[in-house]
Amino acid sequence: MRCYWDEDDVWFYFEVDAEGWVTRQVELEEPELTPVVAASLAEWQRARDAGRLAGYDSRFGTTAEPPVSEWEGHDPEQLTSEEFDEVWVSARRHLAVTPR
User: Fold this and answer.
1) Got the DSSP string for 14-60?
2) What are the start and end residues of every segment in region (Disordered) (predicted)?
3) Which DSSP letter does residue 78 get?
């Protein structure tokens, strides 16, 4: 799914599991759609467990905490997994070489 947050001029892309928890998240800032977050919950947990969380956060950011069922005031647009993956791959490529 994706939604636009006009207060910050940011597009949010989310992959969620069956319970509504965000498993991967991408944030793109307008006007150039510059990637500022491309975080995976599983990677974040592995980085935390390995003591490398600060490095992961500074490079890729974090995913949203509460499940989407608890969110208020957003109107998400549904995406296919292929559409999400296209944005994910591009954002990860950008953040892997460009610090946030």
Assistant:
1) EEE-TTS-EEEEEEEETTTTEEEEEEEHHHHHHHHHTT-HHHHHHHH
2) 57-78
3) P
Structural domains counted in the chain: 1
Type of residue numbered 68: V
Token code pair at residue 38: 């491309």
Pairing mode, if any, of strands 34-40 and 2-5?
A: unpaired
For the chain, give the number of residues.
100
The pLDDT tens digits of the residues spanning 43-87 come to 999 999 999 999 999 999 999 888 887 777 667 899 999 999 999
Residue range of the domain that includes 32: 2-97
In whole angstroms, give the CA distance from residue 78 to residue 67. 16
**The two structure tokens encoding residue 63:** 């995913």
Pairing of strands 34-40, 22-29: antiparallel
- Residue 9 has what DSSP assignment? T
